[in-house]
From TrEMBL:
The lineage of its organism: Bacteria, Pseudomonadati, Pseudomonadota, Gammaproteobacteria, Alteromonadales. SUPFAM superfamilies: 6-phosphogluconate dehydrogenase C-terminal domain-like (SSF48179), NAD(P)-binding Rossmann-fold domains (SSF51735). It comes from Alkalimarinus sediminis. The keyword Oxidoreductase applies. This is 2-dehydropantoate 2-reductase. Its EC number is 1.1.1.169. It is an enzyme of class 1 (oxidoreductase). Residues 7-156 form the Ketopantoate reductase N-terminal domain.
Length: 308
């Protein structure tokens, strides 16, 4: 029988555990977890995986996510599910186990962490994924697969032959999760970024579900201005979307996710750090670099920074 491929998962939180549970049905999956959470006497980790139809117990081998050991224990495929602000450091800590052939897939929302990792490892095959899958982790022992979605995968690192992306996508598709290859993953990441810029900070400031934004004066009076700024930021990055197109997209996502508590509001409610610096913060840094003024985005960024 052919040997199963080994996949290392860095960041066994909500989304990482969902992919780990799904991929482990056909692959050898190893969780890389913070060293202070690894029990030397217990190199396995279990969690309850609650999917739409059933609850199962998933038990997977785990290793500390920091390494000083070269040569042995090299990583072939690394899927990264840390929050955007933790990603660069988490990948750096694994450096001794990463070779120029290690392929790395980044699942972070927002923008900036992808560039940080490609700058760190300019010669590696690096890929980004943009996903609408939904998972949450109410406590350390339970992962809820909250909403089925779709994932797009594309190359962002050193130029790769098409067969590399094909082979990686068939490996990830063995999870059973819906996966589509795209030659233009940056555009997908940018559209998701624009949506997150135009929904997440408002929900955090107004403490409401996505669907409750429409009709609130703060949102209604500033969303058009914000979409103009986002359209300008996208243009600088080579992506043409008019402000009207962006606003229509934002309203459509709000309507389709009306009952959602946005990831930023979930973080605020849980007292966790938000990803604001990689969402509206990324737009502000782009505006700063190009000496442009994007006052609506800046105001949202400053308000979220000041309050949380
Ligand atoms: N959840 C979802 O449905 C979706 C999430 N995303 C994106 O995916 C990313 C992950 O989100 P999510 O899973 O919700 O976040 P979580 O906070 O649930 O998971 C992140 C995990 O990374 C771990 N971590 C941080 N640093 C390290 C490290 N150095 N070594 C090992 N583990 C580390 C954290 O550990 P600890 O808990 O100990 O801090 C945590 O378990 C985010 O960028 C998010 O925006 C995108 C779409 C959907
Ligand atoms: C699309 C949206 C806004 C859905 O809640 C999201 O991605 C998030 O909450 O981060």
């Amino acid at each position: 029988m052919a040997e199963q491929p080994t996949i290392h998962i860095l960041g066994a939180g909500a989304l990482g555990s969902l992919w780990a549970a799904q991929l482990s049905q056909q692959n050898h999956v190893i969780l890389l977890v913070k060293p202070d959470t690894v029990d030397p006497a217990q190199s396995y980790r279990s969690f309850q995986f609650v999917d739409q139809n059933q609850t199962s117990t998933v038990t997977l081998p785990c290793e500390p996510s920091i390494s000083h050991v070269k040569e042995e224990h090299l990583i072939e495929t690394l899927l990264v599910f840390t929050k955007s602000y933790d990603t660069l450091n988490a990948v750096k800590q694994l450096a001794p186990r990463i070779t120029p052939l290690t392929r790395i897939v980044l699942f972070q929302n927002g923008m900036g962490s992808q560039q940080e990792v490609t700058n760190l490892l300019p010669n590696n095959p690096i890929f980004a994924a943009s996903t609408t899958e939904g998972a949450n982790r109410p406590d350390k022992s339970r992962v809820i697969y909250a909403g089925k979605g779709e994932t797009w995968l594309g190359s962002i690192g050193a130029q790769q032959p098409e067969c590399e992306l094909k082979s990686l996508s068939s490996l990830l598709a063995s999870s059973g999760l819906k996966l589509t290859r795209t030659p233009d993953i940056w555009e997908k990441l940018w559209l998701k970024l624009a949506i997150n810029c135009a929904i997440n900070p408002y929900t955090a400031l107004l403490d409401c579900n996505n669907g409750e934004l429409i009709g609130q004066p703060l949102f209604d009076n500033s969303i058009t201005l914000l979409c103009h700024e986002l359209s300008q930021a996208m243009k600088i990055s080579g992506i043409e979307k008019t402000a009207d197109e962006l606003q229509a997209l934002v309203i459509d996502v709000i309507n389709k996710t009306a009952n959602n508590v946005s990831s930023m509001l979930q973080d605020v409610r849980a007292g966790k750090q938000t990803e604001i610096e990689y969402i509206n913060g990324y737009i502000e840094s782009l505006a700063h670099t190009h000496e442009l003024s994007m006052p609506t985005n800046l105001w949202l960024l400053q308000q979220v920074r000041a309050r949380y």
